[in-house]
Write the structure tokens for this entry.
Amino acid sequence: MAYVTSSLIQLANLSAVRIKARGMSIGRAVDVAQIISRKTENAGYIIGEIKIDSEVLESKDGKSRNVSTIDIEVKRK
Amino acid sequence: MAYVTSSLIQLANLSAVRIKARGMSIGRAVDVAQIISRKTENAGYIIGEIKIDSEVLESKDGKSRNVSTIDIEVKRK
């Protein structure tokens, strides 16, 4: 819920926010975007562009690994 | 990798596939889509439309819960 609150505070001043996550947190980013667009249905925030990508990160054993990322835009209608 | 193989087999016959996931599996769906678009860069598959939504499911304790969903299109260029 901290991310939801934080996004809503930003949306009070901006016309759009982008929620970004990497790896295991991707599901949570989708949850946050959904909660905002569902709870603020009357306030008029909607899901905008969604992008997925991958980043190369170095793991603890020194090998490079591909990690998926997501970028969800939430904006005013 | 089973989902990657399965998607590639379908893409051999169809011009697009949709990878869908719910809840905790959302991250894996993004991984599958990324692996396909990265590995088949020369074969020309790209990420198409991405949709996120939520579904109401009944949990074990009988309460209804909102679960986030994702739907990723992978298509021929």
